[in-house]
Amino acid sequence: MRLIIVDAFLERERQIQSGTVGAQLDVFEQYRVPRVDYCILSHRWTGNEVTYEEMRKLTKVDSRDEIRSRAGYQKVLRSCEQAKRDDFKLLWVDTCCIDLLNGPETSDAINSMFQWYQKSKRCYAYLHDISVFPARRDETFARFNGWPEWFSRGWTLQELVAPRDLQFFNKDWVGIGDKQSLAPKLAEITKVPLCILRDGLSSYRPSVAQVISWAADRNTTRAEDRAYSLLGLLGVSMPTLYGEEKGAFLRLQLEIMRTSNDQSIFAWKDSTTCDARWSSGVLADDPSCFRDCHDVIKMEPKEFCKGLLLLWESDAKEPAMASQEDDGIPAFTVTSGAIRIRLPLLPYYGCPSGLPGGIGMSYSGATGPLQLFPQYRQLCLAYREERPREVTFKIDDRTVPYYGFTRRDVFPDVDEVSFAGNSFTVSNTSPLAIVRYTNSAIDVSFAIAFGCCFCQDWVHVICDEQATDVEKVHRVVWNAGAEYARVMAEVRFGERGRPHYVKHEPLPRTMWTVRVFCGGLEESSDRRVTVDVVPLPGGYWKTLGWEPVYVSDIEDSVDMPCPMKKTSWIGDRFDSHTLLVDSIPKVFDLAHALQEVELGDYGITTSNDNGIGYFERRGNIFDDLKLLAHELGIDLNDPGLMPVVQAVHSVQEGGADTISKDVTTKLIKHEGDRWAIAGLTLRQPRSLSLPNTQPILMLLKQLSARNRNHSLVTTVVQCSACYPTDDFKQRINSAMLQYPKFSHNSTTSDLFNVSVNLHTITPLYCASNPWIWCRCELDNEVVNEYRRIREQFSITQDHPLQYGEEPREPGLQLFKRMFGVEHLTSVVGDITFFEQLATSLSTGKELGTTRSKGNMPSGSRKPCVKKLVMTLLRAMKGVTQAFQMRQSPTVVEMMYKTRPIAATLGAEFLVDISATFLGTREAFEDVDSEDGPERNSCETDKTNIQLLVNEVTALQLQYLKSKDDDERLVLEQDIIGTILLACRYGISLEVRQRILEIIDGVLGHEATDISMPLPEREERVNCLRSIGDIFEDANS
Predict the structure, then answer these.
(1) What is the rounded CA–CA span in Å between residue 44 and residue 39?
(2) 91 sits in which H/E element
(3) Are 247 and 269 in contact (CB under 8 A)?
(4) What is the rounded distance in angstroms from the CA atom of residue 644 to the CA atom of residue 489?
(5) What is the three-class DSSP state of 17?
(6) Residue 166: which H helix or E strand, with range?
(7) What is the b/e burial string over 62-84, where b = at least 16 CB atoms within 10 angstroms of the residue's CB?
(8) Binning pLDDT at 50, 70 and 90, where does residue 162 land?
(9) Lateral strand order in the sheet of 375-382
(10) How far is the C-alpha of 126 from the C-alpha of 146, rounded, in Å?
(11) What's the Rg (C-alpha) of the chain?
């Protein structure tokens, strides 16, 4: 430890001022352990401090006057003068008592600094920007959270806590108070507990999370110093490595775990979202993640075990965990990349991993526990990613506006997520982004989440009610990111090269589905994501997961209007020809004999009598454009409609005749690394391709309904003439196939003469299926389910029996299972919609349900939600205490009963329950009205249900009459969609009526089965809205 000799320093300064500088005075003295008392300076570093070398050689340098004029030198001088007045012989100042050019010395000083401040007799805290100690926040210090800058620096935290005697001085070196007298105000400013400020760390040992929380809002010039400034406060030592940036804080946490068993180190939360972060392991990236941990305390083993049982409401008795108490709270074992620890676990509702663990600290616990026995398990917790990861998502959502959707929000702000044009990057530090799309005309929204978790990029589609609030989506998706990454990783498992994936997610209350197509090179960090909205009747009842599309099936080039799926040919086809188009190999198909193929042709693939596949033209998009231009608002002279012209060369070097400009194609057949067979010789060829422009894309979108699964000619090769090579002629003769006529078997000399009178022919083309024309593939399970639904509904309508069993009962049971009626009944009471539906269909009477005003639902089953209402009402004592009931047995029971519903189509009704309770104030206004808005709404819903049932009957008749397979498939999807929509409306109506009956009973009068008077109506409203929050949580 190097200290300034106060008398020597002041003497040297006197000599310099008087001009009588004699022999070099040594102003420093080195001590291993200081023999006398010393004082120490705490201050805010500025840009003009004085270094050790400058201070040591001051009298020998020509620039000593410049050095002495610096604020940093004056700071040391005034400190020495104050120390002299206080009778101190030695002074330590970090700027000049540490040789910063000496790495080992700097590292040793950083590790020892807390002890040096702690052992000092007095510390001078110099606040350079104030005259009096502030009594309240001041806008002058807005950059520093309203307080002087000294309170915003990372290093000054230990300088506040460590010394017992801390004196504050203003900018003029006038005393303005000490730590003892200012302790209450210092505690308010710094969040450091009052007892620690007055008695030091030895009086009360705070948890690791608490200590780090004090530094959450403090800053340092170097990122590494955010960690190094906490070494002494946390009682650990480690080498300093400037250049590792945030890696220093990770090393600090690992060192803490090697020397301490304080599990509060896991109590951090992300500083932006206040939700547990999942992107970089179980350790925090920065002290700011501990901002809300000022009240986290370490628990003793016995207290931990008892508190854990109470928190989880387990039936397990204390002796069941006694074996763990002997060993105390489990210790850590730190390995390279992971932390091994044994923790009590139990299944947890809503957690993707399924098991939450208990750790030894007191903090607000997770909600939604299940009453099961805790199980001790050995866990391996990753604390770092294998490699840093940044993923760039390139979004193509140009067809989304076709159905009225627009991109509304990107969250977080573009400042937090690197967003440029239609591309943005997620990384370890910004691992999640949400893009929301809205159709304001029908009030429907959906959101696409993009993330990166544990080196796995992922995409997720949100089409439920939550999609209307992008910040809420962000909060929900944040906690589920690890699960989405796991799902994507499972889909990609074993795939190599250029995997692509497609997913369909239904839009509620519409006949549309959001289709997301995602792909890119596995080893690349770029992903192209195509977002589209497509009609898919019936698709909303069966959500398909991510499906892989293999590299051989997909063409995903930025030069194409949209991703293309390679055409599947019927029959044999071995006459594909390869050319270089702008130096890139491209495979072309040979046009059938006498066939004329033009750019933009669309049709189907079929085969001739010889079993040879060929393209059968059905139309041309540019011909259709002439009829649709006005509707689409496209100018026929728009340059965006012009084809892209590209140069064509042979794949074999030197394959082009420089005189005649002939180019020879090569057939797809290899012998070693050589092209074995020559194909066609083309005169003056050029390639024409569809442009990647908005007019072309919107034209394809317009034609998507009519041209589903059709192939489109995206590229053609035009030339003035072409003829087969000798190799190709032999191939033709051996196969005896029908090939195009090449200028009627013209000779070579004849072909050369053609150049005098040029005409254009198109022998080669590429045909692909645009993704926006691709129909959603239904697997066998879905197809069979569709058939069962349609047939059972037909039986219910008294169509001829196809089975030797009771005609209506199997159908009713099928629909009840699909919608989870059995589980729903245990929550809201008996659901009679399907019985009413069967009666209505057989008798011809209209559907209808009644709501008896002011009566609680009466049935054989006691609804769980009614029991929940009564329990919460009894718990009210002047004010609603619903939020304190979240872990009551009644709430746990309700979650048990709602959980199975989530696996059925009945999951949507949890939203209805939540929304009805949350709208209690509107229901309150409706209680005394016979014809209120809710009743009118119910009548409207009943009318809609009857119209849907009638529509199903009409569609069934069309289906039976149709002979076209494609038309029958579309009709079947329409039938299924309409059936399920009618059931959805009917059950939803009945569920809402049940809940409204409960609300009427609570708000309209004092229910007879409540033994004590009800609270005031306003408090009842609050109670019911709290139940809505509980159901909303359960649904999430």
Answers:
(1) 17
(2) strand 90-92
(3) no
(4) 38
(5) helix
(6) strand 166-169
(7) eebeebeebebbebbbbbbebbe
(8) very high
(9) 333-335, 338-345, 375-382
(10) 18
(11) 39
CB-based burial of residue 371 (10 Å sphere; 0-12 exposed, 13-18 middle, 19+ buried)? middle
Give the Cα separation of 883 and 501 in Å (integer): 42
Q: Between these two residues, 899 and 177, which has the higher pLDDT value?
A: 177
| Lowest-pLDDT range of 663-672, 820-829, 925-934, 994-1003 | 925-934
- Please give the average per-residue pLDDT across 579-605, as a whole number: 83
Task: Kindly write down the DSSP assignment for every residue of 207-272, as one continuous string.
Answer: -HHHHHHHTTT-B-SSTTHHHHTTHHHHT------TT-TTHHHHHHHHHHHHH---GGGG----TT
Per the CB < 8 A criterion, the answer to whether 684 and 723 are in contact is no
Q: Tokens at residue 646, please?
A: 């590209």
From 314, 313, 271, 263, select the one nearest 290 (Cα to Cα): 271
Structure tokens at 379: 């866990």
Percent of the chain with pLDDT over 90: 20
Beta-carbon neighbour count of residue 662 at 10 Å?
Answer: 22
Strands 644-649 and 444-453: unpaired
Task: Convert the pLDDT of each residue in 53-82 to its tens digit.
Answer: 999 888 888 888 899 999 999 999 999 999
Dihedral sign for Cα 730, 733, 737, 739, please: positive
Query: Which of 213, 477, 468 minimizes the C-alpha distance to 361?
Result: 213
Residue 518: burial class (beta carbons within 10 Å; 0-12, 13-18, 19+)? buried
pTM score over 0.90: no
Helix then strand then coil, % of the chain, to nearest 5: 40, 20, 40
Q: Contacts for 630-633 with beta carbons within 8 Å, 24 or more apart?
A: 631/702, 632/695, 632/698, 632/699, 632/702
Angle of helix 965-1004 relative to helix 1017-1035, nearest 10 degrees, comes to: 150
Instruction: Return the number of other C-beta atoms located less than 10 Å from residue 459's C-beta.
Output: 20
